[in-house]
Each structure stands twice: as C-alpha cells, then as structure tokens.
Design a protein that fits this description.
It is built from 4 helices and 8 strands, in the order αβαβββαβαβββ. With about 160 residues, the chain is α+β, with helices and mostly antiparallel strands. Strands 2-3-4-1-5-8-7-6 form an 8-stranded mixed sheet. The radius of gyration is 17 Å and the shape is globular. It starts with 7 loop residues before the first helix and ends with a strand.
Length: about 160
C-alpha cells in the first residue's frame, strides 16, 4: 500500500504487539572533528588514544557530492570519530546554510529521518537537508543546538 509522505511514520510504527506506536530510534553515531592537518590529527588519536581505523567507510564516501576533503575514520570500538579537513567553501558549493566541516559536529543515527524532520519542524528548529551528499546511502540533515553547536542526524538508506 502506498502512503503519503506524512503518513509513513505512524503507519510503520504501530506494529508492536500492544498496538502502541513505537518510538523512532536515535543513537549517537560519531563525532566529527575538523583540522587543517588531518594526518597529524589522525596520528594523535591513534597514538594517544589507541583508536583504530574504522573499516569500510572510506569506500562509502562520495567526494564529488560537495566535500572533496581528506577524512580519516577512526573508532574506539564503540563510537566513530570522523577526522575531516576543514572546508570553508561547503556553503558556497552546496547552497546550504550550515557548514558541518567548518568546526565539526556531533552525529546521531535514526531509523526514520522523515519523522525526525517533522519533529524539528514541529519545534520550530530550522535545518539544512544535505540528502546523500558525503556518504553513499546516508541521508543527512544538520541543525544548531541552542548554543550554536552543529548536530547531524542521518539515516542509512540502501
């Protein structure tokens, strides 16, 4: 059955055995740190904090989508760190209001990006919808918290 865009969340979430709506899932996914020297930042996090390479992510990049900068993907085994080259031109190339690689961001993964966008709209929080610009299959939005920190929420759609 085809559903209109706004009906998706409610139709898919009323599946539990009690008939109650199940909440969308939101979980911390990664911390993005920006640098003008990604190799030095990478060495620091590997040498000082014993982080390891996060396998497979480099192949998921879409550098032609607006962000051609260097990135190192490392992890402590639980949380990823995306060590990215600072790029002050993202806004100009993408036409978006928020630049997620100007000073970094914290990122959360959800299982329903459309429901999350509705939540932001209901709360009057503007966001930049980047779609799948940097990582294959990652539908990404960015917004500011009350203190101006950049927050990403994304859903993997494959």
């Amino acid at each position: 059955m085809l559903k209109k865009h706004g009906e998706r969340e409610h139709a898919e979430r009323a599946n539990d055995t009690t008939g109650a709506e199940t909440p969308m899932k939101i979980k911390l996914h990664h911390v993005n740190l920006c640098s003008t020297n990604v190799p030095a930042l990478d060495a620091f996090y590997r040498d000082v904090l014993d982080m390891k390479t996060e396998p497979g992510l480099e192949q998921s990049r879409t550098p032609g989508g607006g962000y051609p900068g260097k990135v190192s993907f490392v992890t402590d085994g639980t949380t990823q760190f995306h060590l990215s080259e600072k790029d002050l031109g993202i806004n100009f190339r993408t036409g978006q209001a928020i630049n997620p690689v100007e000073r970094g961001h914290i990122a959360f993964r959800t299982d329903d990006i459309d429901a999350f966008k509705r939540r932001l709209k209901e709360k009057g929080i503007p966001y930049s919808d980047f779609g799948t610009w940097a990582m294959k299959g990652w539908d990404q939005i960015f917004f500011y918290d009350p203190d101006g920190n950049i927050v990403e929420v994304h859903q993997v759609r494959e």
